[in-house]
Prior knowledge:
The chain is an all-alpha fold. The chain has two domains: 6-60, no CATH class; 63-280, MetI-like (MetI-like fold, Orthogonal Bundle). Helix content is 72%, strand content 0%. The protein has helices at residues 10-39, 61-67, 73-104, 110-120, 125-139, 145-169, 173-181, 186-197, 199-214, 218-222, 232-240, 248-280.
Amino acid sequence: MRNFELDRYPWLKKTLTGGVLAICLLFIFFPTFWMISSSLKPNRDAFSVPPQWVPKRWTLENYSSQLSDRRGFLTYAKNGFLVSLENALFTIMVSVPAGYALARIRFPGKRPLMIVILASQMFPGVIIVISLFSIYRTLHLLNTYAGLVLAFTSFSLPFAIWMIRGFFETIPEEVDEAAQVDGCNRLQILIRIGLPLIIPGLLAVGLFSFLNSWNNLIFALSLTTRQTMRTIPPGFLLTYVGEFQYKWSDMFAGSVLVTLPTVVIFIALQRFLVKGLVAGATKG
Length: 284
């Protein structure tokens, strides 16, 4: 029996490929569809059996209640945005000189230091959160923006340093040598030459750090005990889900609202992010 070859039947190959892609897309985007659909239902309909795939009674009350909740959703969103933005800026400020030093400067122990930095990324946050809580309680950093920023930065910094190092290694060393001949020192080379050439990498690292803080639950839940200091993940967990309440529609509406900014940012920076990630992966 001759082997069956799909290349001899291009229409069948296209049909099978399209079917497989459609199934994958359905599997990926179904949670998003369910989140949007449930956010437009009254809370009672979110528990209906059989489930209502498309709302029978449409309502925007869930969205209006979130946008008017100054002690709940708006507080969580404000805290999450401030902490995530500060974490992204602080991570870039620290990772840029560290990545440049690892890429350009030769010093004893450089290789072991790089391995230690990378290995620190392998520890899950739940392992260190108890010790971190004890340290923060002693230093009075619980329920503070500074404490959250430091915790998030410590978790995103190792990967950011390695990414920035990869970006700098894509720049030929002859560029640095030419700048030194013109009288530039290391700091001037970094600021005037290095930074403009790795802008896509900075955007990639910044977005990675921002999303790492925006979605972090374990640190934000453990290091904050006041409602006024909660970010979005612990705020949603402790506000909408409890022993005697399940406000699924409100939580889904809030989830849609907090997802929109990240989607818009990603779409706006997509071209730079792809360029930066590819550039950082070519060497290192």
